[in-house]
Amino acid sequence: MLRVNDNFSLIPQSYLFSEIAKRVSDFQRANPEARIIRMGIGDVSRPLCPAAVEALHRAADHQADPATFHGYGPEQGYEFLRNAIARSDYHDRGIDITPDEIFISDGAKSDLGNIGDLFSTDCRVAVTDPVYPVYVDTNAMAGRAGRPDSASGSWDRIIYLPSTAENDFVPALPLQRPDIIYLCYPNNPTGTVLTRPQLAQWVEYALANSALILFDSAYESYITTPGIPHSIYEIEGARRCAIEFRSFSKTAGFTGMRLGYTVVPRELTGLTSDGTQVSIHQMWLRRQTTKFNGASYVVQRAAEALFTPEGKRQVAETIRYYMANASLLRQKLTEAGLKVYGGIDAPYLWVKTPDGYSSWEFFDILLSKYHIVVTPGAGFGPAGEGYVRLTAFSSAEATAAAASRLAEAKY
Ligand code: PLP
Q1: Of 93, 234, 288, 303, whose CB count within 10 A is highest?
Q2: CA atoms within 13 A on the CB side of 134
Q3: Which of 249, 296, 393 has most ligand 1 atoms within 8 Å of its beta carbon, as the pocket-test mutant?
Q4: Is 348 helix (H, G, I), strand (E, B) or coil?
Q5: Ligand 1 centroid from CA 90, angstroms
Q6: What is the pTM of this model?
Q7: Ligand 1 centroid distance, CA of 69 (Å)
Q8: Distance from C-alpha of 53 to C-alpha of 250, rounded to nearest angstrom
């Protein structure tokens, strides 16, 4: 018989969002008249901006003409897009990243999962807790997570760094040395950020301990507070210890288009088992050119249009729209007596459950009494227990309706 990867059998079958979908559909079946508002899943509601749509049309015309048709593109992405990213997201902000250090992909989730191909299964991984589940599950699939504890949901080889109200959502540096550290700021799910000195501590730690930081900044464009770093490369020394992941999904409504990019600086190195020093950039290039055939030409043209003055203005308008939702939710939830975190520099609000309810208990209350779907914090890791996550990605109308239901609630 075919032998399979045993690690898959260790991963709990009930994926968070399937369990939520099941509870919501059971409730809707029993209460067909209930108008349910979904503030749970992190998908966006606004369509693509006009600049991206026009570029898509133009690119579709290119594909219809033998003179401008594009077949297989460069695996690393088209130069026109890598140049636009290097200029707008880095150079114009005073950050030293060159186009050849940028790898375009079909989204940050793929890259965050695929990057594990480069590292030994012996590597110890640290994650902040609660955490975007992809970091943990992809390491579990690769055999780096050890064994799961069914009661707590944690893995015995993963180093968890709690990030809760008790430490102001600033996780302490690990007591045990990890090889790989996942950081996500602005954070999903807590919606919190790190200041420059706080992020600098992590860079300093990684350099001192020869650890690699995998920095997920999928939500950087939601930062509103001046001085909060948008990129880890704003910190001195980060080119020697960090890979950065970005996504067009939440910035420009590309969740269905699929596009992201990963920055791998040339300075990054690792060791083979015989002690030879190798370039992480070269390894990622080799990995991508072997297993990935490049993101779609038309989608890359649409992304290029986001960097034009029109595109930038339109993207900023969409972000303002979602952040207006976030601040309305923050205000109404706070007025209702709840303790609310995030929602200032991120499209997520992280809400402490009242009266000692567990996160799934509070999920059920919000669904059954107020017909609002949230995400139970426990689904993001042990330290997510006692919280729920709301997103600001719904329409303004749905958000206003949810906010007024929540404002009336007495907990
Ligand atoms: N990183 C974080 C923290 C996310 O929350 C998400 C999506 O929800 C992603 C990455 C995935 O982004 P993409 O749509 O580019 O795969």
Answers
A1: 303
A2: 18
A3: 249
A4: strand
A5: 20
A6: 0.97
A7: 31
A8: 16
